[in-house]
Each structure stands twice: as structure tokens, then as C-alpha cells.
Amino acid sequence: MEKYLLLVLIVILSSCTSNDSTPTDETGLIGKWKLIEQLADPGDGSGTFQPISSKRVIEFFNDGTVSVNGDLCFMTSEVGKTVTGTYMKTSDNNSDTQYDGEIIPNSCSSRSAKVYFDLSTSGDLILWYQCIEGCGQKFIKFF
Fold first, then answer.
1. Quick one: CATH architecture of 30-142?
2. H-type helices in the chain, by residue range?
């Protein structure tokens, strides 16, 4: 009887397939995000996100690329030509990194330019730019 159960178990397990060619979106990052708030700290840590009216949109794709309708090298709410880059997740439950991931824009003069991102518990996406004082942008997902 045990041999029969073992044979059935082997058949069931061998019939399972995995489709690793399509990345999964476990974090909910893939898709379009619209800018809703911006933070520019005055230098004393008292800055807070403030509502902003902008048509700035960033989109994350399954293949590890990102596009935005404007500059990605520094914080701006202005829109313009589409700029692209790559992104990667840099943290997990076992990681000690401060951010959930980083974006490397293709258009910046410095090859070390990066934009860091966090997915907040409220579901917002926050981009953190390299500034002397704290600066960031908050996005909401839209379809």
C-alpha cells in the first residue's frame, strides 16, 4: 500500500509545472503610479509631504525597467519627454537595507545616480532622491 501511495505522490509532483519565465509581482509595484505629494525638508527635519498637482506618472514593468514622463535624475514635478531606467528590489524580510529598492536612470550624467523607493504600508510608493536635505515624492497606483 505504501508503494502505491508513493507512486501516486510521485506522479502528482512530477505533473506540477512552474512558469519562471514571467516574473511575479509580489509587492504590487508593477503598473502606473501618479504623483500626489512632495516633500522638501527645510533642513531641520520638520518637512512633511504636501499635496501637489502634477501629471507626473512613473510605470514599473515586469522586465525590471521603469519609465517616467519627465526627468528622473533629480526631484521635479514637471513632465516632459519619457525617461527610462532599470529597477531592482534591494530588501526583503532578512535584509538590513533601508529602502525596498532602487532605480537607476539611463539619462543622468552621473552613472552613480540612483533613486530609492519604498512601498508604504498604506500602499503608496515613495521615491527618495539624492538631496542634501530630505526630499521625496509620494505616488498612488492607478489603472
1. Beta Barrel (2.40)
2. 2-15
